[in-house]
Amino acid sequence: MEAWLALIRDKLEQPFIILYLREADTETLLKALRLGVQECFIKEIPAADFDKTINRILKTRKGLEAGEKTKIMAVLGVKGGIGVTFLALNLAQALVTLKQPTLLIDLDLSPAGLVSAIDMKPRYSILDIINNFDRLDPQYLKDILHGLPDGLQVLPGPDQLEDFELVQAYHVEKILQYLRVQQLFSWLVLDLGDSLNEITLKSLEQADLILVVITLTVPGLKAAKKVLEVLEMLHLDDKRLRLVANAYDKKSKVTPEEGEKYLSHKLVAALSFEPEAVWHSLNEGRPLVASQPKQRLASQIIALARSLQTGEEQENPRFSWLMSWLPRRR
Ligand SMILES: Nc1ncnc2c1ncn2[C@@H]1O[C@H](COP(=O)(O)OP(=O)(O)OP(=O)(O)O)[C@@H](O)[C@H]1O
Ligand SMILES: [Mg+2]
Fold first, then answer.
1. Domain end call among 17, 36, 60
2. In terms of DSSP bridges, do strands 209-214 and 71-77 run parallel, antiparallel, or are they unpaired?
3. Is residue 320 pLDDT above 80, yes or no?
4. Residue 80 CA: which ligand is closest?
5. Are 63 and 147 within 8 A, CB to CB?
6. What ligand 1 atom has the least distance to the C-alpha of 80?
7. Do β-strands 241-248 and 267-272 pair in parallel, antiparallel, or remain unpaired?
8. Ligand 2 geometric centre to CA of 68 (Å)
9. What residue ranges line ligand 1, CB within 6 angstroms?
10. Which ligand lies nearest the alpha carbon of 220?
């Protein structure tokens, strides 16, 4: 059996193997599992169970349309606490709303991770992928991912502080490449937090879009300038780069135009400061764009996701489509 299964795995790409055995003991079953068998029928094959299995294969295998590519959107903050996680989560959810199968990956390996921003108790994390990379297949991957009720899939970071260092940049690179090849998602949205380390730099290298989150405050702009300088030094300030201001409010001392001038970069959006709506969504444990899609900030994020997805913001970088929502300064 071993040689035969090895041959199948070598000859076919990601085969879904169903094994039929007249009789089996635990040892044989464990061996089959280790060799990559996904389903096992023993003695008889009940029609209903067989149908279920076939449907499961079809569902697992249903990836993107032919020719469609998996794209990576990296979300990076210029400093802590400015809404990177909130934005990554809501942009990813907005893409789902726009019928784009999306996976949100938490690569901000710090204690205040994604899990605290949304109501979820994941059973698995990126460590389970790292530890089982050799036997990774689409079904196993789907079992590890955490599906949120509104359709977004999430890959959480490790939940123990001491496990953070087990995630290495080359793991992240391998996982992103694997996910691209599998073509299960239109978008991979990465929450990179606000630090430039080996993991986040590797992610930025792989990204199709780099969304840098800034705030329109004096310290925020100074931090943004430094980050943009580093990205420029690393040649990551190319046409993939997009700047977005978050939590902009009419009391802000700096206007979007002044921010653009200071940074010599256009903004693709200035998202408004909406503590009440955000507070409600946190309390509900759901992304704002799913719980209140008509709310102002939610609509801005959906519009931003749409423009990033279609690339139209490049033709119209002055975000006139968002200006209409902005609170006017008196
Ligand atoms: N536009 C907004 N209006 C009001 N509140 C916001 C807005 N964006 C984010 N917040 C809130 O600000 C707080 C910080 O946001 P978040 O945790 O997403 O920031 P972060 O940059 O990921 O922080 P960290 O450095 O801890 O990772 C959260 O309570 C979030 O809900
Ligand atoms: Mg965060």
1. 60
2. parallel
3. no
4. 1
5. no
6. 25
7. parallel
8. 30
9. 77, 80-86, 108, 112, 117, 193-194, 246-247, 271, 273-275, 278, 282, 297
10. 1
Distance in Å, CA 87 to ligand 1 centroid: 8
Ligand 2: distance of its center to the CA of 176 in Å? 20
Pocket test for ligand 1, best of 75, 76, 85 (most atoms within 8 A of CB): 85
Q: Tens of pLDDT along 13-44?
A: 667 788 888 888 888 887 777 777 777 888 88
The residue assigned the tokens 């209409």 is: 324
State the pTM of this model: 0.81
Whether residue 328 has pLDDT greater than 70:
no
Rounded distance from Cα 200 to ligand 2 centre (Å): 13
Residue from 73, 95, 190, 112 nearest 150 by CA: 95
Domain of residue 29, residue span = 2-60
In-domain check, residue 329: no
In this structure, which ligand is nearest to the CA of 83?
1
In a domain, 65, yes or no: no
Shared domain for 271 and 124, answered yes or no, is: yes
Residues 149 and 278 placed together within one structural domain of the fold: yes
Residue 225 lies in a domain: yes
Radius of gyration, CA atoms only, the chain: 22
The candidate with the shortest Cα–Cα distance to 61, out of 15, 105, 96, is 15
Mutational test site, ligand 1, from 78, 108, 251, 278, max ligand atoms within 8 Å of CB: 278
Average pLDDT over residues 110-115: 69
Number of domains into which the chain is organized: 2
Output the domain CATH number for residue 182.
3.40.50.300
Residues 6+ apart with CB under 8 A from 157: 106, 107, 108, 109, 113, 114, 125, 126, 164, 167
Judged by its nearest atom, the ligand closest to the C-alpha of residue 282 is 1
Give Dmax (Cα) for the chain: 80
Q: Do 315 and 240 share a structural domain?
A: yes
Q: Are residues 23 and 125 in the same domain?
A: no
**Of 218, 113, 130, nearest in space to 169 by CA:** 130
